[in-house]
Amino acid sequence: MRSRRYGLTTQIVIAGTGGQGILFAARLLQQAAVDAGFDIIGSETHGMAQRGGSVVAHLKIGNAKSPLVRHGCADILYCLHPDETVTNLPFLKSGGVCFTNGSDRIIPENIAKTLTQKKILLYTMDADRIAASIGNPLSANLVLIGFSMNANLLPFSLEHLRSAVGRAGQERFREGNLAAIESGLAAWNFSRRL
Amino acid sequence: MIDAKQEVLLGNGAVARGLVESGCTFVASYPGTPSSEIVPEVVRFAKELNLKIYTEWSVNEKVAYDNALASSYTGLRAAVCMKQVGLNVASDSLLSSAYTGVKGGLVVISCDDPGPHSSQTEQDSRFFAMFAKVPALDPSSAQEAKDLLRYAFELSEKFEIPVLFRPAIGVCHARQNIRFGEVISLERKPEFQKDPGRWAATPVFRYILHKNLNEKLGKICAEFESFPGNEEFGPAGEAKLGIIAAGVPFTVVTDILSENGLLDSVPVLKIVTAYPLPLATCLGFVRRCKKVLVLEETDAVIELQLGRSAKLLGRLNRTVPEEGELVPEVIYDILSKALKKARLPSLPPRDTELQKEVAKLKLRGRRPTLCPGCGHRAAFYAIRKAFPKAIFASDIGCYTLGLNLGAVDTCLDMGAAITLATGFYHAFKSKNIDQPIIATIGDSTFYHAGTTGLINAVNNRAKVVVVILDNSTTAMTGMQPTPDSGSLADGSPGEKVPLGELVRGCGIKYIRECDPYDIENMVEIVKDAVQFTKKKDGGTAVIIARHPCVIAFRDALKKNPVPVKITDECTGCKHCVKFFECPALRFDEEKKKVVLDANLCVSCGVCITVCPQNAIVKR
Questions:
Q1: Confidence of residue A5 (pLDDT cuts 50, 70, 90)
Q2: Which residues are within 8 A (CB) of B162 and not within 5 positions of it... i.e. 6 or more apart?
Q3: CA B522 to chain centre
Q4: CATH topology for B6-224?
Q5: Which residue of chain B has the CA closest to A9?
Q6: Interface list for B 17-76 with A (CB within 8 A)
Q7: B2 confidence band (pLDDT: 50, 70, 90)
């Protein structure tokens, strides 16, 4: 019987709109974490997702019992849609990090001030453009995750992430998904940090 | 690297795995959030493990319940799955079957939706267990749900009684790595032992069955007193504050206590057997605490059974909100106050700074809307264009979003589009007021609950127009098949029950079919249908507006794409945005004109007819 590793819980929120692959991104992180020896628990929105409504996935890696991340407790926030960024920032704890898909300044003054006070880092990158450039326009979710691996905040390795792609997704998309992660990883120098 | 004995599953997947591991061979369901994923996961596990498990998408929850019940009458283990409001539909069967009892275990899985996220009520299914006098089990996590099902079937068979199993949405739509157990293979032979005094009991016999039922309940209550799942955590002895918790709230409060080093200061009694409540266990706990906080979803089922006491903090004295989901922030604040009042070390104040700053921006939430290319959008536009002043009685499904187009006036429960419409008709007719009434109902909803209302309409001469919005699937809940689809839950072919014939079978003399994409044509048909209802020898009229769901049948749009563009003729009148509301048409505040979002546009071309300035043209 394999033993489970017990460590501090890493809490993650992934937000976007229907069709952006929020739930697949969550599946990927879940699988990578489990392969690395952790227990995971999370939650997802269903039903209204494809009708353009907001989709939010919560994920806790470690030994938490409840599936929802509380406001002010998330270590990492991924935002696939610029409209979803500001609304979901309250999930972040002081010192937390937000990775957002967007091409320009999207944070109002009062919010930016509060983020600085709480030492919250916000990385913004044009994941949509990168995804389109590798011929995989719907893979902005994986580009953003690949990008975030540079920050070393997740408790599993790039290898765990790569191998999780094979299990979490369909075989015919595996090459494309891996390419999206690689291109996000390489984009670290082309991001903006607020 | 893969642990073959575990898998990351949705809570509903864990439930499915639990059914399979328990040797259940019959699962019936009607789709409904948050229960819809159970049947497909059972199908998947059955295929992977090469097991023979009968799965069925039934026409509605009562039909599903009866089918599953019959299986349990023959000694086979069966389960029926639904969302909480579906239990309303199946309640007739639930209550009667509590009296007849079962042979093979029957587990009634009713998934609750506190919030609500996508339901007409936030009702607590455990109340139905209380009403029906059957035991209710309340799992707090996906893993527990899977493991608990084995016990649910054993309990059901030991006392020959249906067992209500109630995972809330926080269990159903949670994701967890689930440790698998052994799959038991029961190899039972179905047999029905005749016993009319039980299975066909008339009122005199029902009295005896009720007596038996009450005795069963007493024995079950005694058994629950020693059920290991009802566990006490934390310090023994007297306490200033104790917590009785069940379901997801148990996991939330445990995490909060753990994060703040309070697990050894605050005793917690976890309850899994929500009804009948093991009172000796609970009152023993209450006795040693000065105050007891009761945390459960979605209503005060455990709290009410505890009886009134000044010690209890819960919904009855408004310590816990009586409506809405108990999200972690709410539970945090309740616990914080309770600890403070009990003069115990409290929790750090919640940091709400970012929340307050975001609230200052007054951001409007994104509202759900019909997909680009949806046939319902075109249908609603046509209906409203034909009779803008009609009363639009509608129903439950994706098409309820016709609200956004100003074409939905009522939404009550399954089938109410037709029954409210005819009720409206008689009300206005009683005062000779000529008020057009147009009911809109989906195809799956019509099979579920529409035929009875339609037969009633014809028979009682309610001259309304019923538009069946046929997108050939059950869309909102995840594209499940309908009786007209020709395919069953496991993908095998089913016998089709064609919609048009069914409508004629209800006695309808006026029936027209159309593709709502052709808006002008549909407008004429709707006008003609209303004319028919006004004739002396007219009657109820039905229009079937058929266009396959663009998500379920993606290839259809690729056959004849109609790419469009918006010309300079656009005056910014916003007619398209307000009354057609396609997500691909966006009003640009700077340009004061409507612009096309090429990423969202699916080239259906329907908007061309909509623009009053003819500013949308084929590209």
A1: very low
A2: B69, B72, B94, B97, B98, B101, B102, B106, B107, B108, B132, B134, B156
A3: 32
A4: Rossmann fold (3.40.50)
A5: B259
A6: 33-34
A7: very low
User: What order of strands is seen across the sheet that includes strand B312-313?
Assistant: B232-233, B268-270, B239-245, B289-295, B312-313
**Cα–Cα distance for residue pair B328/B411, rounded to 1 Å:** 31
Cα torsion B9, B15, B21, B24: sign:
negative
pLDDT at B556: 84
CATH class of the domain comprising B560-618 = alpha beta
Fold of the CATH domain B232-354: Rossmann fold (3.40.50)
Of A70, A118, A167, the CB nearest to B328: A70
Nearest CA in chain B to A81: B366
Please write the tens of the pLDDT for every residue from B519-531.
999 999 999 999 9
Interface of B with A in 530-569 (CB under 8 A): 551
**Are B328 and A45 an interchain contact pair (Cβ–Cβ within 8 Å)?**
no
Among partner residues A42, A51, A92, which is closest to B175 by beta-carbon distance? Answer: A42
State the nearest Cα–Cα gap between B398 and chain A, in angstroms.
9
Q: Where are the alpha helices (DSSP H) in B343-476?
A: 353-360, 375-386, 416-429, 443-445, 451-459
Contact B173 A52 (CB under 8 A): no
ipTM attached to this prediction: 0.93
Q: In the numeric block, which tokens belong to residue B513?
A: 């079919």
Angle at B68 between CA B66 and CA B73, to 5 degrees: 90
Of A44, A69, A72, the CB nearest to B175: A44
Cβ separation of A71 and B369 shorter than 8 Å? no
Q: Which residue of A has its CA nearest to B32?
A: A47
Chain centre to alpha carbon of residue A144? 7
Tokens of B244: 């009785």
Tokens 């019940």 sit on residue:
B69
Selected residue of A4, A51, A80, A88 to mutate for chain B interface (largest B Cβ count, 10 A): A51
Residues of chain B with CATH 3.30.70.20: 560-618
Domain B375-557 sits in CATH at: 3.40.50.970
Instruction: List where CATH 3.40.50.920 sits in chain B.
Output: 232-354
Backbone angles phi, psi at B167, to 5 degrees: -85, 135
Domains along chain A? 10-186 (3.40.920.10)
Between residues 233 and 252 of chain B, which touch chain A (CB distance below 8 Å)?
248, 251-252
Which letter does DSSP use for residue B493 in this model? B
Preferred mutation among B111, B250, B255, B601 to probe A, highest tally of A CBs within 10 A: B255
| From-to residues of CATH 3.40.50.970 in chain B | 6-224, 375-557
Q: Residues A94, A119: contact at Cβ < 8 Å?
A: yes
Nearest CA of chain B to the CA of A150: how many Å? 24
Alpha-carbon torsion (B365, B368, B372, B375), positive or negative: negative
A82-119: pLDDT as tens digits? 888 999 999 999 999 999 998 766 789 899 999 999 99
User: Chain A to chain B, count of Cβ pairs less than 8 Å apart?
Assistant: 143
For B362, which residue in chain A has the nearest alpha carbon?
A87
B 393-422 residues inside an 8 A Cβ radius of A: 398, 401
Contact B510, B461 (CB under 8 A): no
Q: Tokens at residue A67, please?
A: 């599936």
pLDDT band at A19 (very low <50, low <70, confident <90, very high): confident
Q: How much is the pTM?
A: 0.96
